[in-house]
Amino acid sequence: MTDSYGVPTLDLSQWGSESQSSFIQALMKGLETFGFVVIKNHGIQPSLLDKAYQQSKALFELDETEKLQYSIESSQRGYTAFGREHAKDNPIGDLKEYWHIGPELSEDSPYLNEYPKNFWPTSLPSFQPALSSLYAELDRVSQILLAAIGKGLNVEDGFFKQLTHDGNTVMRLIHYPPVENGAPTGAMRAAPHADINLITLLIGASSEGLELLDKNGEWLPINNAPDEIVVDTGDMMARLTNEQLPSTVHRVVNPKDLSQARYSMPFFVHPHNSASLVSLPQCLKGEPPKHEPITAGDFLHQRLRENGFLKESEDN
Ligand SMILES: O=C(O)CCC(=O)C(=O)O
Ligand SMILES: [Fe+2]
């Protein structure tokens, strides 16, 4: 089944059923063609999603001074203030504030002291349980999607599970406030960019605005039901697959009614930092690799510097 723009809508309940191979085929085709698919029947409870969005709204309603207590310059956890991040090669800051939640690692993880620790806002006691539950559910769905991609690429079973074990996966709660008259000319909710990571899951964005740049250079709005998950491929997957699954540039445009806020929650699935992003032999098909080998951690830091998030000397 496809929506009117051709981005396919796939039924996750086909995974593990007799239609599994047609699910895998449609997933690969959608990602190869658009870099985007929409997923329904993923099993995430609407009540869990509602609670997570309620907590996200409550978080952004806190006083700026309180939010800034959870902001460490250049850290990939906690709060990032409005206008701080900009897309690669674009000097104008995006019209958004956001909060990052990473994995809660086990005590024996080699990354325990490498990845920054999560912050949990003390004045919102329901925030951690709601967001941790949604993080676990999105992680579950992402593992199914990666297993399906693994089968589609013909890599050994468990390849992506191992690659993302102790992964630096980040859930980003975003608040795009009403657009003020004083916003810099050309500033956008999210300027055109490709995601850094393997795949991104977007669930329940509160209003439209997300658009992808198709292969003809046209912007296509993504129209999905609020309970469906939009999935896109990031640059790390493009590197691993030697561009068989390319990343796709996308953006979030400003609304016609500038007084309308928007909330979203991209879930950026990352490998562990020491994972190699060298092209998989299954994807070379006689072609030379299109990218230099690099680890996931080094690639992430390179991209964070380009997004104005890390200064040259910083490394976290
Ligand atoms: O808010 C959205 O719907 C998408 C945001 C996005 O593309 C990003 O943060 O990378
Ligand atoms: Fe994105």
TrEMBL record:
GO terms for molecular function: metal ion binding; oxidoreductase activity. InterPro entries: DIOX_N (IPR026992), IPNS-like_FE2OG_OXY (IPR044861), IPNS-like_sf (IPR027443), Oxoglu/Fe-dep_dioxygenase_dom (IPR005123), Plant_2OG-oxidoreductases (IPR050295). Pfam families: 2OG-FeII_Oxy, DIOX_N. Keywords: Iron, Metal-binding, Oxidoreductase. Residues 167-271 form the Fe2OG dioxygenase domain. Belongs to the iron/ascorbate-dependent oxidoreductase family. This is Oxidoreductase. It comes from Marinibactrum halimedae. The lineage of its organism: Bacteria, Pseudomonadati, Pseudomonadota, Gammaproteobacteria, Cellvibrionales.
